[in-house]
Amino acid sequence: MSAGNFRKSQRIVHGNAIDYRELTPEEHSIAGYSPSKKSVDTSSEFELNSNIDNNDEDDEDYVPSARVATQGRGIRRAAGVARKRIRASQTVSPRKRSPEKGAKEAPNPTASQISPDVIEAARTFEKRVPAKLEPHFLSRTRMIIDSLNVFLYAEQGATDPWKSAFSAYRYNGPRKHAPFRELYRLSDPLEDDISDWAENIRWAKQQYELYGSVWTEYEYSLECITKHRIRSLWASEELIRSGRFPAN
């Protein structure tokens, strides 16, 4: 019997201590213990270890097939989705902190109430109608621009003489001499033009549309229009959008 067999199977127990020394044949006979005569087959263990070593070497050169790799990725993906769902189901929503005693909550601007007077004033402003200002008397014999002289006041070579003659920018402002043009017949000023000249034209067009009043570009008439606009706080939509209202 080999020493390994004695080492593995023959152990003498002394109390709580175990004696691992090798026993002699005489000690075997005294102890009355007869070890098994069947030897341990180590060939299978050797072959198993050899196979394991060979498999480790072959793993470096092993390339899985496309089908196996695809299945592996699918399994890992499914496992990842399952883990995310488990974490989501286990997530606990954070508790809202209760306000401390005596602490005031911040006001919500959306919940603030608007005064009824302000609402009524806004509705009135939306449907506002400007006050009528009586125009100056216009003589029937006054000099005007008509089909007989329109070419004299239009820009030379203009394809549309009427449009050119009644352009708000034909003379870079109002005419200084007769004939004085009717303001409601002039072209609309540019949207970014908020000069007194442009505002007077817009005001005169509104007066003609609402009341049929006719104002001209006569200098005194323009002065009256400007004073009335400032006194009544009249402003066009173009002036309001520019952010320069009220004018200083």
UniProtKB/TrEMBL annotation:
Chain intervals for the UniProt region annotation (Disordered): 1-62, 74-114
Compositional bias segments (type: Basic and acidic residues): 19-29
Compositional bias of kind Polar residues: 41-52
The protein, known as: Uncharacterized protein
